[in-house]
TrEMBL record:
The chain crosses the membrane at residues 7-37, 43-62, 155-173. This is Uncharacterized protein. It comes from Roseovarius marisflavi. Keywords: Membrane, Transmembrane, Transmembrane helix.
Length: 174
């Protein structure tokens, strides 16, 4: 079951690329190609490079494609993106041992995860954003059920978010 969810997540992320290039038809074609050509080396390589995909990347892909088709989506503010980028870079440095505090270990413990999920839900309630609370709660649900990683951060974060966030910030400046 988890393998099927991973392949669907990869199909959604790649559909996001197809949507950017050729709209809904491109999204559908690439998603279908990913699902039908799982054994093809380029597709298998993408899975090996991007796994675990977690909740965030597929959710972002769906959100952006929905916005591209006219669904009203509250965009993230530039300040929110800068704060996220800086915090996530510190988190990644911590996970690699560059910063002496191991923040990644908090993703294994129920109480810190619950506090982080509640904080995301509180932020969502204050800002009117439903996206982050949904991702946080879905990540927690997968984590509690034991689907995928035993660390909550693996469900709600992905290293690809760094270049994606940088590109969004650069595009906003241009």
């Amino acid at each position: 079951m988890r393998a099927a969810a991973d392949w669907i997540a990869l199909a959604l992320v790649m559909a996001w690329v197809g949507f950017a290039v050729a709209g809904p038809v491109g999204a559908g074609a690439i998603a279908l190609a990913v699902l039908l050509l799982r054994g093809w080396v380029p597709v298998s390589t993408l899975m090996a490079l991007l796994a675990p995909l977690g909740v965030m990347l597929p959710a972002l892909a769906l959100r952006q494609m929905a916005a591209g088709m006219g669904v009203a989506v509250i965009p993230f503010g530039s300040l929110e993106l800068v704060v996220f980028l800086l915090a996530y870079l510190v988190f990644l440095a911590s996970a690699m041992g560059v910063v002496p505090v191991g923040l990644y270990r908090f993703g294994y413990a129920p109480v810190p995860v619950a506090v982080m999920v509640l904080a995301a839900c509180g932020y969502g309630a204050l800002s009117g954003q439903v996206f982050l609370p949904i991702v946080a709660v879905m990540g927690q649900a997968l984590w509690v059920m034991g689907w995928g990683s035993s660390n909550w951060f693996d469900h709600v974060l992905h290293a690809v978010l760094v270049p994606v966030t940088i590109v969004v910030l650069i595009l906003r400046m241009v």
